[in-house]
Amino acid sequence: MFTPRFLTSAFLALVCTQWCAAQGPYPGQIKNLVTFGDSYTDVGDPGDNATAWPVYAAMYGNFTLYPYAKAGATCSNYLTPRLFPSVFEDELPLYFTERENGSLVLDLTDTMYTLWIGTNDVGVGELITGQQTPGVTLVDTVSCAVDWVKVLYMSGARNFIVQNMLPLQLTILYSAYSYPNRYWAEQRNTTEWNVFMTEMTNTGNALSAALLSALTPTLTDAHLGK
Ligand SMILES: *[C@@H]1O[C@H](CO)[C@@H](O)[C@H](O)[C@H]1NC(C)=O
Ligand SMILES: *[C@@H]1O[C@H](CO)[C@@H](O)[C@H](O)[C@H]1NC(C)=O
Ligand SMILES: *[C@@H]1O[C@H](CO)[C@@H](O)[C@H](O)[C@H]1NC(C)=O
Ligand SMILES: *[C@@H]1O[C@H](CO)[C@@H](O)[C@H](O)[C@H]1NC(C)=O
């Protein structure tokens, strides 16, 4: 979208440094990569015509890719209503339907699940412009992402990577020096958006780390990286 690809790569390298250093799957264990999220992970139509990261990761790691991420997604359209598929109302249901009807057969000990969500949850049309379902806050959208781990764990999944939100305040859309663009052409106070977005990405990522740390002791036999 509006984020240079190198940010994505740098981020993945960081995840691996932390994840690989901790006790995780053994080398060669992971054979399948199942991805959830928004346009940053959607393999259908990378905005810049480049290679979507899951395609690259699957090639690099020799994984079979099962991509469920959809452009425009938030974690849940009940929390942040949008005219796009969401993780909980569309992506997970499709995954479970395919598992139940036998069209998707996976050995779950060999399978890594990833979730990269939040950009649209906190972004224009949702939290930053106050258009979420009344009463919904960052606490709800981040808890929703943590619930993705719970739901998949209950169904037998054991290997997870939960990806951080980008420092969205550094993108054109949310910079103090922002200008009219395809995502927002109306008047706004760019300083205010930049300050608010900085709070949301930093607080959201720290909250999900805390919630996941509290959750992991209950996930027997699971590996979880962030
Ligand atoms: C992507 O490819 C299409 C078709 O070749 C081209 O029209 C479009 O300008 C390209 N977009 C970018 C961002 O390079
Ligand atoms: C890649 O994965 C397939 C299926 O798991 C396996 O048969 C093959 O040996 C692997 N190739 C390499 C180079 O590791
Ligand atoms: C299983 O469900 C998926 C998603 O609805 C569908 O595309 C697929 O054709 C179904 N397969 C079978 C064998 O019913
Ligand atoms: C924009 O927001 C900043 C930070 O709240 C404030 O200092 C500034 O006065 C605002 N500018 C305008 C034109 O309202």
UniProtKB/TrEMBL annotation:
It comes from the Eukaryota. InterPro entries: GDSL, SGNH_hydro_sf. Keywords: Signal. Pfam families: Lipase_GDSL. GO terms for molecular function: hydrolase activity, acting on ester bonds. Residues 1-22 form the signal peptide. Gene3D superfamilies: SGNH hydrolase. This is Carbohydrate esterase family 16 protein. It comes from Daedalea quercina L-15889.
